[in-house]
Amino acid sequence: MIQECRLFSYLLSASSPERFVMLYRFLTLLRNALCRLISLPGAFRAYALFVVFSIATVSLLFVAGCHKPTLAETYVASFVGNTACASCHQKEFDVHHTTRHATTLRAVNKKGLDTLPLTTGRIADSAYALYDNGDGFSFGWKNKTEGAMPLQLALGSDRIAYTFVNTMDNHSIMEFRESYHPASKAWHTTPGHDSSETETLGKVYEQSIGRRCLGCHAVVLPVDSVTPDPKFYGVGCESCHGPGKKHVEAVQSGNMTELNMVKLGTLGAEKLNHLCGKCHRNAEDVAPDQMDMTQRFAAFGVSRSRCFRESNDRLTCIKCHNRHTNVSEDKKRYEQTCLSCHTAKPASFGPSEGGKACPVNPKTGCIPCHMPKRAAGPGKFADHYIRVFSTKELATP
Predict the structure, then answer these.
(1) Residue 298 CB burial class (10 angstroms; 0-12, 13-18, ≥19)
(2) Which of 84, 294, 384, 393 could in theory staple to 389 by disulfide, Cβ–Cβ 3.0 to 4.6 A?
(3) Sheet bearing 128-132, strands edge to edge
(4) Taking the chain, what is the end-to-end CA distance rounded to the nearest angstrom?
């Protein structure tokens, strides 16, 4: 019985996927123990059988889920998905659900990528090729099909690029070496990868890094997996507003005083921008050799800007960006925010005396001069470290 009891203790501490395997082993040992117990004296046999059946009952109940959920499991269960928000917030839902934020994670199959013209064959200027695997695609070496791995998830959007991953054992991810850029209809080396490295198909990231990566492209991840439920693909309502279960329950019960939802509009710039920075990088997330990449890490760039530091905690990301739509390309719209402070008139936010009007062009042209687009890989992004750029800096791509 010692072996059976030891395995029972392991069973209680095992994670969910392991419990069923261990239960099978445990019940096999239990069957053998029962066979041995039959030969025992009567009184002792009855007591031993009682103990064995008690342990078996507890094991079955535990594996079936009759245990107190962990804090992490409770937290994951508090998310409800975007469609639960639609009945009350239909306008926001209709605008948001087709945006690049909402579709920043999708399954790699021919239906899910119907707008992405991927073609099989060799990938130019690389050691790799794309193969048809029926419903989707596999990534492998161009001179052999052996070892090719399915592209399972696509991260990104048609604005810049799609990077592909395979979730492997659901506890780590393979990020493939090549990413696809729709604008040029070409493949380029995935950021952070060495284009000269051809011995592997990409980089394998262990669970903590894999969860952080996919966690910015999904609303929430399961406790013991890096693979999200499809209903949580993309940046959804709860990515910013927080888990909605209690909010939905409050509304459905008619309790309009305790809505269990943070009003983001009441947050100051530091807190709100930090929320955006969880995926768009805050200062603590930027490596020392990336400090000049303020065109790539928007929240970090804004935090360095004098405009932000002297705005009395009011220069938020949503001063310029509508959080429910795609990023606007209308420079005039952004200039309205600039001119609300940098004018001879009293500022609508910021220091009471207002910001200094631009001596070069006080009415227009703010963005190309003070937030020029800079290269980051094959794409270009507006530099969010708002400042006066030198002529030399503006001339640098």
Answers:
(1) buried
(2) 393
(3) 121-122, 128-132, 137-141, 149-150
(4) 73
Q: pTM for this one?
A: 0.79
Cα dihedral: 258, 264, 266, 269 (round 10): 150
Distances (CA, A) of 159 to 92, 191, 356, 373, 375: 22, 16, 34, 14, 14
Strand 373-376 relative to strand 202-205: parallel, antiparallel, unpaired? unpaired
Beta strands (DSSP E) in 318-377 are 373-376
In angstroms, how far is CA 84 from the centroid of its own chain? 20
**Separation of alpha carbons 374 and 393, rounded Å:** 10
Q: Look at the alpha carbons of 4, 5, 10, 12 in this order and tell me if their dihedral is positive or negative.
A: positive
Q: How do residues 299-353 score in pLDDT, each as one tens digit?
A: 999 999 999 999 999 999 999 999 999 999 999 999 999 999 888 665 555 444 5
